[in-house]
Write a structure and sequence with these properties.
nine-stranded mixed beta sheet, elongated, Leucine Aminopeptidase, subunit E, domain 1, about 475 residues, 16 helices, alpha/beta, Aminopeptidase, protease, six-stranded mixed beta sheet
Length: about 475
Protein backbone atom coordinates (compact mmCIF):
# COMPACT_ATOMS: atom_id res chain seq x y z
CA UNK A 1 0.00 0.00 0.00
CA UNK A 2 1.24 3.50 -0.80
CA UNK A 3 2.23 5.06 2.48
CA UNK A 4 1.05 8.58 1.75
CA UNK A 5 -1.57 8.41 -0.99
CA UNK A 6 -2.46 11.28 -3.23
CA UNK A 7 -5.57 10.95 -5.39
CA UNK A 8 -3.71 11.98 -8.52
CA UNK A 9 -0.19 13.36 -8.85
CA UNK A 10 -0.19 16.89 -10.21
CA UNK A 11 -3.96 17.39 -10.14
CA UNK A 12 -3.14 21.12 -10.09
CA UNK A 13 -0.24 22.63 -12.04
CA UNK A 14 1.22 26.07 -12.69
CA UNK A 15 0.23 28.35 -15.55
CA UNK A 16 1.38 27.33 -19.02
CA UNK A 17 0.85 28.88 -22.43
CA UNK A 18 -0.16 25.53 -23.93
CA UNK A 19 -3.18 25.04 -21.67
CA UNK A 20 -6.59 24.40 -23.19
CA UNK A 21 -9.44 26.64 -22.04
CA UNK A 22 -11.97 24.65 -20.02
CA UNK A 23 -15.44 26.13 -19.47
CA UNK A 24 -17.96 25.06 -16.83
CA UNK A 25 -21.44 25.76 -18.16
CA UNK A 26 -24.73 25.72 -16.25
CA UNK A 27 -27.74 24.71 -18.33
CA UNK A 28 -29.50 28.00 -17.59
CA UNK A 29 -26.44 29.92 -18.84
CA UNK A 30 -25.92 27.87 -21.99
CA UNK A 31 -27.52 30.29 -24.43
CA UNK A 32 -25.66 33.36 -23.18
CA UNK A 33 -22.37 31.45 -23.00
CA UNK A 34 -22.79 30.06 -26.51
CA UNK A 35 -23.57 33.54 -27.87
CA UNK A 36 -20.17 34.74 -26.62
CA UNK A 37 -18.26 32.08 -28.60
CA UNK A 38 -16.92 32.50 -32.15
CA UNK A 39 -19.24 31.36 -34.94
CA UNK A 40 -17.23 28.21 -35.71
CA UNK A 41 -17.42 27.19 -32.04
CA UNK A 42 -21.18 27.80 -31.99
CA UNK A 43 -21.58 25.71 -35.11
CA UNK A 44 -19.55 22.85 -33.63
CA UNK A 45 -21.52 22.88 -30.37
CA UNK A 46 -24.78 22.94 -32.28
CA UNK A 47 -23.72 20.02 -34.49
CA UNK A 48 -22.97 17.95 -31.37
CA UNK A 49 -26.19 18.94 -29.64
CA UNK A 50 -24.39 20.18 -26.51
CA UNK A 51 -27.01 20.96 -23.84
CA UNK A 52 -24.78 21.36 -20.75
CA UNK A 53 -26.22 18.28 -19.06
CA UNK A 54 -24.45 17.19 -15.86
CA UNK A 55 -21.00 15.92 -16.78
CA UNK A 56 -21.62 16.34 -20.52
CA UNK A 57 -18.23 17.02 -22.07
CA UNK A 58 -17.32 18.42 -25.46
CA UNK A 59 -13.99 19.24 -27.11
CA UNK A 60 -13.94 21.90 -29.84
CA UNK A 61 -11.13 21.71 -32.42
CA UNK A 62 -9.34 24.72 -33.81
CA UNK A 63 -8.37 25.16 -37.45
CA UNK A 64 -5.04 23.36 -37.02
CA UNK A 65 -6.31 20.09 -35.60
CA UNK A 66 -5.63 20.97 -31.96
CA UNK A 67 -8.22 21.79 -29.32
CA UNK A 68 -9.61 25.31 -29.14
CA UNK A 69 -11.55 24.72 -25.92
CA UNK A 70 -13.37 22.16 -23.83
CA UNK A 71 -16.70 22.53 -22.05
CA UNK A 72 -18.29 20.60 -19.21
CA UNK A 73 -21.99 20.85 -18.44
CA UNK A 74 -23.29 21.22 -14.89
CA UNK A 75 -26.98 20.84 -15.66
CA UNK A 76 -29.87 22.78 -14.19
CA UNK A 77 -30.35 23.86 -10.58
CA UNK A 78 -32.34 20.67 -10.03
CA UNK A 79 -29.59 18.58 -11.59
CA UNK A 80 -26.92 20.17 -9.41
CA UNK A 81 -28.97 19.48 -6.28
CA UNK A 82 -29.06 15.80 -7.22
CA UNK A 83 -25.47 15.30 -8.35
CA UNK A 84 -22.12 16.35 -6.91
CA UNK A 85 -18.75 16.78 -8.61
CA UNK A 86 -19.73 17.32 -12.26
CA UNK A 87 -16.20 18.41 -13.12
CA UNK A 88 -14.76 15.34 -11.44
CA UNK A 89 -17.12 13.11 -13.35
CA UNK A 90 -15.91 14.63 -16.61
CA UNK A 91 -12.17 14.46 -15.88
CA UNK A 92 -11.74 10.96 -17.29
CA UNK A 93 -13.46 12.05 -20.52
CA UNK A 94 -10.83 14.70 -21.20
CA UNK A 95 -7.55 13.95 -22.98
CA UNK A 96 -4.55 14.05 -20.64
CA UNK A 97 -3.64 17.66 -21.34
CA UNK A 98 -3.43 20.72 -19.10
CA UNK A 99 -6.54 22.90 -18.82
CA UNK A 100 -7.22 26.48 -17.75
CA UNK A 101 -10.56 26.88 -16.01
CA UNK A 102 -13.17 29.49 -16.96
CA UNK A 103 -16.24 29.69 -14.73
CA UNK A 104 -18.75 31.91 -12.97
CA UNK A 105 -18.98 29.80 -9.83
CA UNK A 106 -19.30 31.04 -6.28
CA UNK A 107 -16.37 30.18 -4.00
CA UNK A 108 -18.02 27.14 -2.42
CA UNK A 109 -19.11 25.75 -5.80
CA UNK A 110 -15.58 26.16 -7.15
CA UNK A 111 -14.14 24.36 -4.12
CA UNK A 112 -16.54 21.46 -4.62
CA UNK A 113 -15.75 21.14 -8.31
CA UNK A 114 -12.00 21.38 -7.69
CA UNK A 115 -12.23 18.71 -5.00
CA UNK A 116 -14.19 16.49 -7.37
CA UNK A 117 -11.42 17.00 -9.96
CA UNK A 118 -8.88 15.70 -7.43
CA UNK A 119 -11.03 12.82 -6.20
CA UNK A 120 -11.64 11.68 -9.78
CA UNK A 121 -7.93 10.84 -10.00
CA UNK A 122 -8.30 8.09 -7.40
CA UNK A 123 -8.21 4.42 -8.27
CA UNK A 124 -7.33 1.44 -6.12
CA UNK A 125 -4.38 -0.15 -7.88
CA UNK A 126 -2.56 -2.16 -5.23
CA UNK A 127 -3.19 -5.50 -6.92
CA UNK A 128 -3.01 -4.39 -10.56
CA UNK A 129 0.03 -4.94 -12.75
CA UNK A 130 -0.82 -2.31 -15.38
CA UNK A 131 0.30 1.28 -15.05
CA UNK A 132 -2.40 3.86 -14.22
CA UNK A 133 -3.68 6.00 -17.06
CA UNK A 134 -2.57 9.61 -17.32
CA UNK A 135 -5.07 12.17 -16.08
CA UNK A 136 -6.00 15.62 -17.28
CA UNK A 137 -4.39 18.37 -15.19
CA UNK A 138 -5.76 21.74 -14.14
CA UNK A 139 -4.00 25.04 -13.69
CA UNK A 140 -4.67 26.01 -10.08
CA UNK A 141 -7.63 28.42 -10.17
CA UNK A 142 -6.98 31.87 -8.72
CA UNK A 143 -8.01 32.29 -5.05
CA UNK A 144 -8.56 28.54 -4.59
CA UNK A 145 -6.87 27.06 -1.52
CA UNK A 146 -5.33 24.20 -3.45
CA UNK A 147 -3.28 22.95 -0.48
CA UNK A 148 -6.47 22.57 1.54
CA UNK A 149 -8.29 20.86 -1.33
CA UNK A 150 -5.44 18.44 -1.84
CA UNK A 151 -5.29 17.69 1.90
CA UNK A 152 -8.99 16.77 1.88
CA UNK A 153 -8.57 14.66 -1.24
CA UNK A 154 -5.49 12.88 0.13
CA UNK A 155 -7.33 12.15 3.40
CA UNK A 156 -10.20 10.66 1.41
CA UNK A 157 -7.74 8.64 -0.71
CA UNK A 158 -6.21 7.20 2.46
CA UNK A 159 -9.67 6.24 3.72
CA UNK A 160 -10.58 4.60 0.43
CA UNK A 161 -7.30 2.69 0.21
CA UNK A 162 -7.68 1.29 3.72
CA UNK A 163 -11.29 0.20 3.19
CA UNK A 164 -10.63 -1.27 -0.26
CA UNK A 165 -7.71 -3.41 0.92
CA UNK A 166 -8.95 -6.96 1.60
CA UNK A 167 -8.61 -8.45 5.05
CA UNK A 168 -5.87 -10.79 3.81
CA UNK A 169 -3.70 -7.68 3.56
CA UNK A 170 -5.41 -5.44 6.15
CA UNK A 171 -5.61 -7.17 9.49
CA UNK A 172 -4.92 -5.52 12.85
CA UNK A 173 -1.15 -5.61 12.28
CA UNK A 174 -1.40 -4.01 8.85
CA UNK A 175 -3.84 -1.39 10.13
CA UNK A 176 -1.30 -0.61 12.86
CA UNK A 177 1.38 -0.18 10.17
CA UNK A 178 -0.80 2.26 8.21
CA UNK A 179 -1.59 4.10 11.46
CA UNK A 180 2.13 4.38 12.24
CA UNK A 181 2.88 5.56 8.69
CA UNK A 182 0.34 8.35 9.13
CA UNK A 183 1.87 9.31 12.46
CA UNK A 184 5.40 9.32 11.01
CA UNK A 185 4.32 11.56 8.13
CA UNK A 186 3.02 14.15 10.58
CA UNK A 187 5.52 13.58 13.41
CA UNK A 188 2.87 12.30 15.78
CA UNK A 189 3.47 9.90 18.68
CA UNK A 190 1.97 6.40 18.67
CA UNK A 191 1.52 3.81 21.39
CA UNK A 192 0.06 0.31 20.92
CA UNK A 193 -1.50 -2.00 23.50
CA UNK A 194 -1.27 -5.54 22.11
CA UNK A 195 -2.81 -8.93 22.85
CA UNK A 196 -3.03 -9.94 26.50
CA UNK A 197 -1.67 -6.53 27.49
CA UNK A 198 -5.20 -5.31 26.75
CA UNK A 199 -6.32 -7.22 29.84
CA UNK A 200 -3.45 -5.85 31.92
CA UNK A 201 -4.33 -2.31 30.79
CA UNK A 202 -8.04 -2.81 31.58
CA UNK A 203 -9.35 -2.96 28.01
CA UNK A 204 -11.25 -6.26 28.38
CA UNK A 205 -13.93 -5.76 25.72
CA UNK A 206 -11.37 -5.13 22.96
CA UNK A 207 -9.57 -8.30 24.05
CA UNK A 208 -12.80 -10.34 24.20
CA UNK A 209 -13.80 -9.47 20.64
CA UNK A 210 -10.36 -10.07 19.13
CA UNK A 211 -9.05 -13.01 21.13
CA UNK A 212 -10.48 -15.71 18.82
CA UNK A 213 -8.30 -14.60 15.91
CA UNK A 214 -4.67 -15.57 15.46
CA UNK A 215 -4.14 -11.92 14.52
CA UNK A 216 -3.74 -10.26 17.89
CA UNK A 217 -6.20 -7.52 18.90
CA UNK A 218 -4.73 -4.15 19.79
CA UNK A 219 -5.52 -0.56 20.67
CA UNK A 220 -3.80 2.09 18.54
CA UNK A 221 -3.28 5.49 20.16
CA UNK A 222 -1.91 8.55 18.33
CA UNK A 223 -1.23 12.01 19.76
CA UNK A 224 -0.34 15.15 17.81
CA UNK A 225 -0.19 18.84 18.73
CA UNK A 226 0.87 20.56 21.92
CA UNK A 227 -1.63 23.42 22.23
CA UNK A 228 -5.23 24.31 21.54
CA UNK A 229 -8.52 22.50 22.18
CA UNK A 230 -8.37 18.77 22.84
CA UNK A 231 -10.00 16.81 20.02
CA UNK A 232 -10.25 13.02 20.22
CA UNK A 233 -11.32 10.80 17.32
CA UNK A 234 -12.30 7.16 17.90
CA UNK A 235 -12.77 4.78 14.96
CA UNK A 236 -14.02 1.20 14.84
CA UNK A 237 -11.23 -0.98 13.48
CA UNK A 238 -12.83 -4.40 12.97
CA UNK A 239 -10.66 -5.53 10.08
CA UNK A 240 -12.97 -8.40 9.26
CA UNK A 241 -16.24 -9.40 10.88
CA UNK A 242 -17.35 -13.01 10.49
CA UNK A 243 -20.08 -12.34 13.03
CA UNK A 244 -18.30 -14.60 15.50
CA UNK A 245 -20.24 -17.64 16.73
CA UNK A 246 -23.41 -15.88 15.53
CA UNK A 247 -21.92 -16.39 12.08
CA UNK A 248 -23.03 -14.04 9.32
CA UNK A 249 -24.58 -15.54 6.18
CA UNK A 250 -22.16 -15.57 3.26
CA UNK A 251 -23.95 -12.76 1.45
CA UNK A 252 -23.66 -10.54 4.52
CA UNK A 253 -19.97 -11.33 4.96
CA UNK A 254 -18.89 -10.26 1.49
CA UNK A 255 -18.28 -6.61 2.37
CA UNK A 256 -16.88 -7.12 5.84
CA UNK A 257 -13.40 -5.96 4.86
CA UNK A 258 -15.02 -2.53 5.21
CA UNK A 259 -15.90 -3.04 8.88
CA UNK A 260 -12.85 -0.97 9.76
CA UNK A 261 -14.36 1.95 7.82
CA UNK A 262 -14.71 4.04 10.98
CA UNK A 263 -10.98 3.69 11.66
CA UNK A 264 -10.20 4.49 8.02
CA UNK A 265 -12.39 7.59 8.13
CA UNK A 266 -10.95 9.04 11.34
CA UNK A 267 -7.46 8.41 9.95
CA UNK A 268 -8.38 10.30 6.79
CA UNK A 269 -9.81 13.14 8.87
CA UNK A 270 -6.70 13.15 11.05
CA UNK A 271 -4.58 13.55 7.92
CA UNK A 272 -6.65 16.56 6.83
CA UNK A 273 -6.28 18.18 10.25
CA UNK A 274 -2.55 17.57 10.59
CA UNK A 275 -1.79 18.53 6.98
CA UNK A 276 -3.48 21.88 7.60
CA UNK A 277 -1.64 22.41 10.88
CA UNK A 278 -4.67 23.06 13.08
CA UNK A 279 -3.87 24.35 16.56
CA UNK A 280 -5.40 21.39 18.37
CA UNK A 281 -4.29 18.62 20.68
CA UNK A 282 -5.37 15.70 18.53
CA UNK A 283 -5.76 12.14 19.79
CA UNK A 284 -6.83 9.23 17.58
CA UNK A 285 -7.89 5.90 19.11
CA UNK A 286 -8.50 2.78 17.02
CA UNK A 287 -9.39 -0.60 18.56
CA UNK A 288 -8.07 -2.93 15.83
CA UNK A 289 -9.42 -6.49 15.93
CA UNK A 290 -10.69 -9.34 13.80
CA UNK A 291 -13.98 -10.90 14.93
CA UNK A 292 -13.32 -14.57 14.25
CA UNK A 293 -14.59 -18.02 15.16
CA UNK A 294 -12.54 -20.42 17.29
CA UNK A 295 -12.73 -22.40 20.51
CA UNK A 296 -12.01 -19.36 22.66
CA UNK A 297 -14.43 -17.00 20.91
CA UNK A 298 -16.92 -15.10 23.04
CA UNK A 299 -20.28 -16.85 23.18
CA UNK A 300 -23.90 -15.70 23.07
CA UNK A 301 -25.01 -15.23 26.66
CA UNK A 302 -21.53 -14.43 27.99
CA UNK A 303 -21.23 -11.62 30.51
CA UNK A 304 -18.24 -9.37 29.85
CA UNK A 305 -16.77 -6.63 31.99
CA UNK A 306 -15.83 -3.28 30.48
CA UNK A 307 -13.15 -0.75 31.28
CA UNK A 308 -15.83 1.47 32.77
CA UNK A 309 -16.96 -1.29 35.13
CA UNK A 310 -20.32 -1.82 33.43
CA UNK A 311 -21.12 -5.46 32.70
CA UNK A 312 -22.38 -6.39 29.24
CA UNK A 313 -24.47 -9.40 28.25
CA UNK A 314 -23.47 -10.61 24.79
CA UNK A 315 -26.73 -11.59 23.15
CA UNK A 316 -25.21 -11.47 19.66
CA UNK A 317 -21.51 -11.86 18.93
CA UNK A 318 -22.14 -9.99 15.66
CA UNK A 319 -22.78 -6.77 17.62
CA UNK A 320 -19.07 -6.56 18.38
CA UNK A 321 -18.30 -3.05 17.14
CA UNK A 322 -20.01 -1.35 20.05
CA UNK A 323 -18.00 -3.54 22.43
CA UNK A 324 -14.56 -2.51 21.18
CA UNK A 325 -15.71 1.11 20.95
CA UNK A 326 -17.00 1.05 24.53
CA UNK A 327 -13.52 0.53 25.98
CA UNK A 328 -11.93 3.04 23.59
CA UNK A 329 -14.57 5.66 24.40
CA UNK A 330 -14.13 5.11 28.12
CA UNK A 331 -10.38 5.63 27.76
CA UNK A 332 -10.96 8.80 25.72
CA UNK A 333 -13.57 10.10 28.18
CA UNK A 334 -11.17 9.76 31.12
CA UNK A 335 -9.31 12.80 29.77
CA UNK A 336 -12.53 14.77 29.22
CA UNK A 337 -11.47 16.24 25.85
CA UNK A 338 -13.20 19.33 24.50
CA UNK A 339 -14.63 17.25 21.65
CA UNK A 340 -15.02 13.49 21.21
CA UNK A 341 -16.02 12.03 17.84
CA UNK A 342 -16.80 8.35 17.26
CA UNK A 343 -17.11 6.87 13.75
CA UNK A 344 -18.15 3.30 12.99
CA UNK A 345 -19.74 1.06 10.39
CA UNK A 346 -22.04 -0.02 13.18
CA UNK A 347 -25.58 -1.02 12.20
CA UNK A 348 -27.55 -2.26 9.24
CA UNK A 349 -30.48 -0.34 10.73
CA UNK A 350 -28.77 2.93 9.78
CA UNK A 351 -28.58 1.80 6.16
CA UNK A 352 -32.22 0.78 6.10
CA UNK A 353 -33.17 4.22 7.42
CA UNK A 354 -30.73 6.35 5.43
CA UNK A 355 -29.42 4.33 2.50
CA UNK A 356 -25.72 4.22 1.65
CA UNK A 357 -25.19 7.94 0.97
CA UNK A 358 -26.39 9.59 4.19
CA UNK A 359 -24.62 9.05 7.52
CA UNK A 360 -26.73 9.49 10.64
CA UNK A 361 -25.10 11.02 13.68
CA UNK A 362 -26.13 11.23 17.32
CA UNK A 363 -25.37 13.96 19.85
CA UNK A 364 -26.98 15.70 22.81
CA UNK A 365 -25.24 18.96 21.85
CA UNK A 366 -27.69 21.14 19.90
CA UNK A 367 -25.03 23.64 18.83
CA UNK A 368 -22.78 20.88 17.52
CA UNK A 369 -25.69 19.26 15.68
CA UNK A 370 -26.57 22.59 14.07
CA UNK A 371 -22.97 23.18 12.99
CA UNK A 372 -22.70 19.68 11.52
CA UNK A 373 -25.91 20.04 9.52
CA UNK A 374 -24.83 23.42 8.18
CA UNK A 375 -21.43 22.07 7.19
CA UNK A 376 -23.02 19.00 5.66
CA UNK A 377 -25.11 21.18 3.35
CA UNK A 378 -22.21 23.52 2.62
CA UNK A 379 -19.73 20.86 1.50
CA UNK A 380 -22.36 18.35 0.34
CA UNK A 381 -21.24 15.54 2.63
CA UNK A 382 -24.71 14.21 3.55
CA UNK A 383 -25.50 13.80 7.26
CA UNK A 384 -28.69 13.58 9.29
CA UNK A 385 -29.23 13.74 13.04
CA UNK A 386 -31.05 10.87 14.73
CA UNK A 387 -32.20 11.09 18.36
CA UNK A 388 -30.65 9.59 21.47
CA UNK A 389 -34.20 8.80 22.55
CA UNK A 390 -34.10 8.23 26.34
CA UNK A 391 -37.26 6.10 26.36
CA UNK A 392 -35.31 3.42 24.46
CA UNK A 393 -32.69 3.14 27.22
CA UNK A 394 -34.65 0.27 28.75
CA UNK A 395 -34.10 -1.74 25.57
CA UNK A 396 -30.37 -2.01 26.30
CA UNK A 397 -30.86 -3.03 29.94
CA UNK A 398 -31.25 -6.83 30.05
CA UNK A 399 -31.56 -7.23 33.81
CA UNK A 400 -28.92 -9.95 34.14
CA UNK A 401 -26.16 -7.41 33.38
CA UNK A 402 -25.89 -3.64 33.20
CA UNK A 403 -26.16 -3.57 29.41
CA UNK A 404 -27.27 -5.71 26.46
CA UNK A 405 -25.18 -5.51 23.30
CA UNK A 406 -28.02 -6.67 21.02
CA UNK A 407 -31.57 -5.93 22.19
CA UNK A 408 -34.18 -8.34 20.86
CA UNK A 409 -36.98 -7.22 18.59
CA UNK A 410 -34.92 -5.42 15.97
CA UNK A 411 -36.53 -2.03 16.60
CA UNK A 412 -34.50 1.22 16.45
CA UNK A 413 -31.22 -0.63 16.00
CA UNK A 414 -29.11 2.42 15.16
CA UNK A 415 -30.52 4.36 18.12
CA UNK A 416 -30.04 1.57 20.66
CA UNK A 417 -26.44 1.11 19.46
CA UNK A 418 -25.83 4.85 19.93
CA UNK A 419 -27.45 4.75 23.37
CA UNK A 420 -25.16 1.85 24.28
CA UNK A 421 -22.07 3.87 23.31
CA UNK A 422 -23.41 6.94 25.08
CA UNK A 423 -23.26 5.03 28.41
CA UNK A 424 -19.47 5.07 28.17
CA UNK A 425 -19.12 8.86 27.76
CA UNK A 426 -19.86 10.95 30.84
CA UNK A 427 -17.08 13.49 31.41
CA UNK A 428 -16.77 14.88 27.87
CA UNK A 429 -18.95 17.95 27.26
CA UNK A 430 -19.31 17.46 23.49
CA UNK A 431 -19.70 13.99 21.99
CA UNK A 432 -21.01 12.80 18.62
CA UNK A 433 -21.29 9.29 17.20
CA UNK A 434 -21.50 8.66 13.43
CA UNK A 435 -22.97 5.42 12.05
CA UNK A 436 -21.40 5.33 8.58
CA UNK A 437 -21.55 2.86 5.69
CA UNK A 438 -18.07 3.44 4.27
CA UNK A 439 -18.86 2.05 0.83
CA UNK A 440 -20.04 3.39 -2.51
CA UNK A 441 -22.28 0.64 -3.96
CA UNK A 442 -22.12 1.93 -7.56
CA UNK A 443 -19.86 4.36 -9.34
CA UNK A 444 -20.75 8.08 -9.26
CA UNK A 445 -18.82 11.20 -10.33
CA UNK A 446 -15.51 11.30 -8.40
CA UNK A 447 -16.72 8.34 -6.29
CA UNK A 448 -15.81 4.94 -7.78
CA UNK A 449 -17.47 1.82 -6.51
CA UNK A 450 -15.76 0.71 -3.30
CA UNK A 451 -14.53 2.27 -0.09
CA UNK A 452 -15.71 5.80 0.67
CA UNK A 453 -15.38 8.27 3.51
CA UNK A 454 -18.49 9.72 5.11
CA UNK A 455 -18.78 12.62 7.51
CA UNK A 456 -15.10 13.58 7.46
CA UNK A 457 -15.53 16.53 5.10
CA UNK A 458 -18.48 17.86 7.10
CA UNK A 459 -16.49 17.55 10.33
CA UNK A 460 -13.47 19.20 8.72
CA UNK A 461 -15.68 22.13 7.73
CA UNK A 462 -17.56 22.38 11.05
CA UNK A 463 -14.90 21.83 13.69
CA UNK A 464 -12.90 25.07 13.30
CA UNK A 465 -15.95 27.10 14.35
CA UNK A 466 -17.11 24.57 16.93
CA UNK A 467 -13.67 24.50 18.54
CA UNK A 468 -13.13 28.25 18.01
CA UNK A 469 -9.87 27.70 16.14
Amino acid sequence: MTKHPHPSPMAFVKETSTAIDLHLVNAEDLESWTDMQPRRVRAWLDSLGFRAKPGETVLVPDGDGAFALAAIGRGSLRDRARQRFCMGGARSKLPAHTYRLHHTLAAQELEEEALGWCLAGYSFRRFRQSDPADHAKLIAPVHLETHRIEAIAAGEALTRDLINTPASHMGPEELEAAFSDLATKHRAAVSVTLGDDLLHQNLPLIHAVGRASNRSPRLLDMRWGKSGPRLTLVGKGVCFDTGGLNLKPGASMGLMKKDMGGAATVMGLAHMIMAQGWQVQLRVLVPAVENSVSGNAMRPGDILNSRKGLSVEVNNTDAEGRLVLADALTLADEESPDMLICMATLTGAARVAMGPDIAPFFTHDADLARALMQASAQVRDPLWQLPLHPAYDTLIEPGIADLDNAPSGGMAGAITAALFLNRFVEATPRFAHFDIYGHQPSAAPARPKGGAGQGARALFAALPDVLAL
